[in-house]
Amino acid sequence: MLKAYGTLLRTPGGLKFSTAGFIGRMPIAMDSLAIIFVVVAATDSYALAGALTAVGSIVVGASEVFWSRKADQRGQSKILRIAVPIRIIAFLLFVIAVSKSAPTWSWFVLLIIAESTAINAGGMVRRRWLHILKNDPKNKDGHLVNTAYSWEAMVDEFVFIVGPVVATTCAVKIAPSAGILAGLIFLAIGLPSLAAMKSTEPPAEPANDEEPHPVILKNRIVQSIVFPCALLGGFFGSVGISVVGFAEEKNNPSSTGWLLAIWAVGSAVAALINGAIKFKSAHATRFLIYLVGLTLGSIPLLFSKSIPALAFALFVNGLFIAPLIVNAYGTVENAVPAGQITEALTWVIAGMPLGGAISSALAGIVIDNYGAQAAFWVPLGFMVAAMVTTLPYLSTY
Description:
The chain is mostly helical. Helix content is 75%, strand content 0%. The chain contains 18 helices and no strands. The chain has helices at residues 3-9, 14-25, 31-43, 46-74, 76-99, 104-115, 121-133, 143-174, 178-196, 220-249, 255-276, 283-296, 307-318, 321-333, 341-350, 352-370, 372-375, 377-389. Helix 7 (121-133) packs antiparallel against helix 8 (143-174), helix 11 (255-276) runs parallel beside helix 13 and helix 11 (255-276) crosses helix 14. The relative contact order is 0.17.
């Protein structure tokens, strides 16, 4: 089963840029959780923490699309060298503002500045895989692209296994702000390293005013993935904050990281299996199947009364996540020109922060007023809504 992965990772330069991308992606599993810890410690308000992460998430969605479009046009290394330093400085100022009890409005301003430099490192790494596999004779039937996407899905899940544990441990054992600072260290190591790897960087394709590419969101195939994925972001965001609240209610806040890690383990297991299979069905068809599966797999969260029960429910739920995302990427990648692939891959997740923004704020309010158990209705509601948005596109799948 692992033969395909061995072939993939022997591709020159692949393991190096994938490793750099892994390190640079660590903050995506840490920042929102770390912000919740630092804000709740300072204000004891989940609603305010949810509002901050919501606003930040909205900015992230637009920011990642912007920087990805520029990466297609100007090259990845140039974009990373601009965005990363600004992000680090802004987040450091945000930590200082919260710890020194600066006016709350300044927290929002600094967080907006920080999140306006959000980079979709995962999209950049996937674009590199496409670039180096394009003319690889071992990839004649294209199966290594599915393996590469599945490998990166496993990397993503490993990020979500390690990241929450690191963020939680730093926030609980060291200081509330330590989770954010740890994420910045990963960022400062990973993304500059990726920028330095010129040999595997896809060539820039400057914008052509005479023959401009079509607007990506006018593509019906892209729409069929982006809209349900935006609501999928609501699922992710509300599960995250609900787990934090659940662990707090059980007087075991340090279990938060492990619960989220177990969720990611389920997804990683599914990614491993997915990448080893040569599928004959279309990516879009598999996307729809896994979307239904994830919706049904969200129901057990409602009935989890203890931390072990929630851990099991999260593991089962996670089994549907990576294959769903892998097939979302596969669907849009085949629907756009080469000069728009990084942007198209980013659109898959660009709507997720918006869904997460709404759901984080909503789940925070539910936790404050009704408790964490009731908050698990929020992610289920978002999954049902995601399924409904696919109805106008059933002929596409």
